[in-house]
C-alpha cells in the first residue's frame, strides 16, 4: 500500500517534485479546457470534411506559413507540448488510483514521454525554419 | 413497544478482533420514529438488543465530531442522519468510516490522523513575541473571512473517509489537516507559514490530492477542504519556484 | 485520573500484530480494490481522469502532423488524407465529446483551486465561477474559429 518512491526517508521529510509537473499539468489542462473541443472540430472534422471551413484551409502552404510564423510556432508548440504534459501527469496519477504501484519508474516513463514529445515538436518546428 | 410501531433493519458491519478473522454484517430490527437519528438507532441496539456493539458518540448535535460512520456507503455523522430517510428501502447499512483501520465494530483507529494534525501545528504561531500588555489582536471582517470557514472543522474525519487518496496512500496528510494548515496560514495573526509549508510540499503532502472533491461534498460543516488543499498546492508551487523564501500560505 | 482508578491502562497505540501475547488489538484494514466503483461520484471522477488518454491521443495526432509537415508537402498531404478517413472522423467525434466533458469538469474544479472571488465584497458562488469559465471557453473557441475562418476563407 505504501506508494513511496524512496523508502530511505519518511515521505514527510522528502520534498515532492510535483510542483513542476503540477504546473505543467495545470497549464495544459487549462489550455485544453479552453480550446481543445474547437481545435478537434477544426482539425479533425470541419476541415477534413469541408464543413463550415474550406477543405484547403489546412493546405501545405497555409500550414507552412503558420509554422514559420514565430507566433504560430509558439502556439503549435504550446498546444502539443502542454497537452502531452497534462495527459502524462493525469495518467500517472490514474495508475496510482487503479492500485498500480507507480513510483519513479512510471514517472520516468510518462514524464519522459511528454519530454520527448516536446523535443520532437520543437525539433519539427525548428526544421520548418522561420 | 406497541405492535403498530414502524421498524427498520439496521445492518451493522461488526468486527470483534478477539474472535472475528474479518468484519461481517449483522442485521438488527429496530423500531423507530420519524425524529430518530441513525445514532439513536445504534443506541437502541446497544441498550435493548446487543450490548456488545461498539461505536463512538458524544454530543448528539453535530459539533463533537465523534459519531462519523459510513451510512449506505456515504460518510455521515450518525447523529445528523435520520432513520426516516432510509425507511423507503426498509433497511440501512452502517459501517466504520472508510480508509481507517477498524479497531472494533464502528470504532476506527485514528492515531494516524492525530499525528498528521500535530504535524501541521494547528495553533497560531505569533509573528513576534507579543506581551499581554499589547492587548488583543484586531482583525477586519475581511481578515476573519479569509480563514473563518476552515476553522469550522470538527475533526470528524468524514473527509478522510471520502478521500480515495487517503485510502490509497495512508501517509497522505489528508483533507482536514491540510484545511487546518491553510486556516492558520491564512490568519493575519499568524506567522508560522514557513514552518508549515514543508508539510504541504512533502511527498506525503498536498500533491497526493487529485482534486476528487468528495471531501467537500461530505463535510457536515461547510469547510470545503478541497479548496484549502488546492490553494495550498498553489502556494507550494509559488514557493517552489521562488526558492525557499519562507513565504507561503494564502493571503 | 485518580490513582485508585481500577480501569486497566489503555494499550499504547502500536499496530498490534495477530497473536502478540497480551495485546488483543488487531486493527482490520479494509481493501481498496474497486474503490471507485463504490460511489457514482468516484465513477465520474475516474471518467474525468480518463479524458487524459484522449488528450494524449489527440496530441500525438497533432505531433505526427507537425513532423509530417516538416518532412514536406507529400508527407503533409498523406497526413491530411488520413484525417479524411471515416475512422478518423469517428475518432475525432469521440475526441470532441470527451473534450467537452473535460472542459466542463476542468472548470468544475477551477473554483477549488483559486482564492475566493469577491464582487462587491461578496463571494461569488463556485457554481457561478464554473459557469463563467465555461462561457469564457465558449468565447475563446468562437474567437479561435473566427480567426481560422478569417485567415482561410
Give the number of DSSP strands of chain A. Answer: 0
CATH class of chain A: Mainly Alpha
Number of domains of chain B: 2
Share of helix of chain B, binned:
25-40%
Distance between the termini of chain A: 52 Å
Mean pLDDT score of chain A, rounded?
91
Report, as a whole number of angstroms, the end-to-end distance of chain B.
59 Å
Q: What count of structural domains of chain A?
A: 1
Question: CATH fold name of the largest domain in chain B, please?
Answer: Fumarate Reductase Iron-sulfur Protein, Chain B, domain 2
CATH architecture grouping of chain A: Up-down Bundle
Q: What coarse outline of chain A follows from CA principal-axis ratios?
A: elongated
Total count of strands of chain B: 7
Mean pLDDT of chain B equals 94
Unreliable parts of chain A: 1-5
Protein name (chain A): Fumarate reductase subunit D
Transmembrane segments (chain A): 21-51, 71-88, 108-128
Organism (chain A): Rhodocyclus tenuis (Rhodospirillum tenue)
GO biological process, one term (chain A): fumarate metabolic process
What's the arrangement of secondary structure elements?
The complex is a heterotrimer of chains A (130), B (251) and C (153).
Chain A lengths: L17 H32 L10 H9 L1 H28 L6 H24 L3
Helix pairs in contact in A: 1-3, 2-3, 3-4
Chain B lengths: L6 E8 L9 E8 L6 H12 L18 E4 L2 E4 L13 E5 L6 E3 L2 E2 L2 H9 L21 H5 L12 H5 L1 H5 L6 H11 L7 H9 L12 H5 L6 H17 L10
Parallel strand pairs in B: 1-5
Antiparallel strand pairs in B: 1-2, 3-4, 3-5, 6-7
Helix pairs in contact in B: 6-9, 7-9
Chain C lengths: L39 H32 L1 H11 L2 H24 L8 E2 L2 E2 L2 H27 L1
Antiparallel strand pairs in C: 1-2
Helix pairs in contact in C: 1-2, 1-3, 3-4
Structural summary, described in words:
The complex is a heterotrimer of chains A (about 130), B (about 250) and C (about 150). Chain A has helices at about 20-50, 60-70, 70-95, 105-125. Chain A is mostly helical and about 130 residues long. Chain A has one domain (about 20-125): Up-down Bundle (3 helical TM bundles of succinate and fumarate reductases). In chain A, helix 1 crosses helix 3, helix 2 (about 60-70) packs across helix 3 (about 70-95) and helix 3 packs antiparallel against helix 4. In chain B, the strands form 2 sheets. A 5-stranded mixed sheet of chain B has the order 2-1-5-3-4. Chain C is mainly alpha-helical. In chain C, strands 1-2 form a two-stranded antiparallel sheet. In chain C, helix 1 (about 40-70) runs antiparallel to helix 2 (about 75-85), helix 1 crosses helix 3 and helix 3 (about 85-110) packs antiparallel against helix 4. In chain C, about 25% of the residues are buried. The chains are: A mainly alpha (about 130), B alpha+beta (about 250), C mainly alpha (about 150). Chains in contact: A-B, A-C, B-C. At the A-C interface, helix 1, helix 2, helix 3 and helix 4 of A face helix 1, helix 2, helix 3 and helix 4 of C. Chain C: Pfam families: Fumarate_red_C (PF02300).
Amino acid at each position: 500500500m505504501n506508494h513511496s518512491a524512496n523508502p530511505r526517508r519518511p515521505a514527510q521529510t522528502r520534498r515532492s517534485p510535483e510542483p513542476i509537473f503540477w504546473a505543467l499539468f495545470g497549464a495544459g489542462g487549462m489550455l485544453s479546457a479552453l480550446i481543445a473541443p474547437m481545435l478537434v472540430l477544426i482539425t479533425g472534422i470541419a476541415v477534413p470534411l469541408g464543413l463550415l471551413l474550406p477543405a484547403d484551409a489546412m493546405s501545405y502552404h497555409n500550414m507552412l506559413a503558420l509554422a514559420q510564423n514565430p507566433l504560430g510556432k509558439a502556439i503549435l508548440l504550446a498546444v502539443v507540448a502542454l497537452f502531452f504534459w497534462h495527459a502524462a501527469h493525469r495518467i500517472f496519477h490514474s495508475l496510482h488510483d487503479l492500485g498500480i504501484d507507480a513510483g519513479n519508474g512510471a514517472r520516468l516513463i510518462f514524464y519522459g514521454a511528454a519530454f520527448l514529445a516536446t523535443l520532437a515538436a520543437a525539433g519539427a518546428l525548428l526544421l520548418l525554419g522561420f | 413497544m406497541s405492535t403498530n410501531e414502524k421498524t427498520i433493519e439496521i445492518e451493522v458491519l461488526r468486527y470483534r478482533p478477539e474472535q472475528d478473522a474479518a468484519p461481517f454484517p449483522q442485521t438488527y430490527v429496530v423500531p423507530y420514529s420519524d425524529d430518530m437519528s441513525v445514532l439513536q438507532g445504534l443506541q437502541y441496539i446497544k441498550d435493548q438488543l446487543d450490548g456488545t456493539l461498539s461505536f463512538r458518540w458524544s454530543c448528539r448535535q453535530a459539533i463533537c465530531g465523534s459519531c462519523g460512520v459510513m451510512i449506505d456507503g456515504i460518510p455521515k455523522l450518525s447523529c445528523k442522519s435520520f432513520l426516516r430517510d432510509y425507511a423507503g428501502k426498509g433497511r440501512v447499512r452502517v459501517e466504520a468510516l472508510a480508509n481507517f483501520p477498524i479497531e472494533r465494530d464502528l470504532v476506527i483507529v485514528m492515531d494516524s490522523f492525530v499525528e498528521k494534525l500535530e504535524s501541521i501545528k494547528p495553533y497560531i504561531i505569533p509573528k513576534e513575541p507579543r506581551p499581554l500588555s499589547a492587548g488583543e489582536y484586531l482583525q477586519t471582517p475581511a481578515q476573519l473571512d479569509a480563514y473563518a470557514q476552515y476553522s469550522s472543522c470538527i475533526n470528524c474525519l468524514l473527509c478522510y473517509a471520502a478521500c480515495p487518496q487517503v485510502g490509497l496512500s495512508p501517509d497522505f496528510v489528508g483533507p482536514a489537516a491540510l484545511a487546518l494548515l491553510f486556516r492558520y496560514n491564512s490568519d493575519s495573526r499568524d506567522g508560522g507559514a514557513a514552518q508549515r509549508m514543508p508539510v504541504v510540499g512533502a511527498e506525503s503532502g498536498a500533491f497526493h490530492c487529485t482534486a476528487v472533491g468528495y471531501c467537500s461534498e461530505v463535510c457536515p460543516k461547510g469547510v470545503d477542504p478541497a479548496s484549502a488543499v488546492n490553494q495550498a498546492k498553489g502556494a507550494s508551487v509559488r514557493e517552489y519556484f521562488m526558492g525557499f523564501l519562507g513565504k507561503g500560505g494564502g493571503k | 485520573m485518580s490513582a485508585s482508578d481500577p480501569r486497566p491502562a489503555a494499550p499504547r497505540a502500536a499496530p498490534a500484530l495477530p497473536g502478540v501475547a497480551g495485546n488483543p488489538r488487531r486493527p482490520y484494514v479494509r481493501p481498496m480494490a474497486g474503490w471507485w466503483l463504490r460511489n457514482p461520484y468516484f465513477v465520474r471522477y475516474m471518467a474525468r481522469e480518463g479524458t487524459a488518454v484522449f488528450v494524449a491521443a489527440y496530441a500525438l495526432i497533432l505531433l505526427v502532423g507537425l513532423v509530417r509537415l516538416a518532412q514536406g508537402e507529400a508527407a503533409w498531404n498523406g497526413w491530411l488524407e488520413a484525417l479524411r478517413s471515416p475512422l478518423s472522423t469517428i475518432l475525432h467525434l469521440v475526441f470532441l465529446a470527451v473534450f467537452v466533458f473535460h472542459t466542463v469538469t476542468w472548470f468544475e474544479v477551477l473554483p477549488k483551486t483559486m482564492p475566493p472571488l469577491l464582487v462587491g465584497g461578496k463571494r461569488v458562488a463556485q457554481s457561478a465561477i464554473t459557469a463563467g469559465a465555461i462561457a469564457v471557453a465558449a468565447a475563446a473557441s468562437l474567437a479561435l474559429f473566427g480567426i481560422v475562418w478569417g485567415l482561410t476563407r
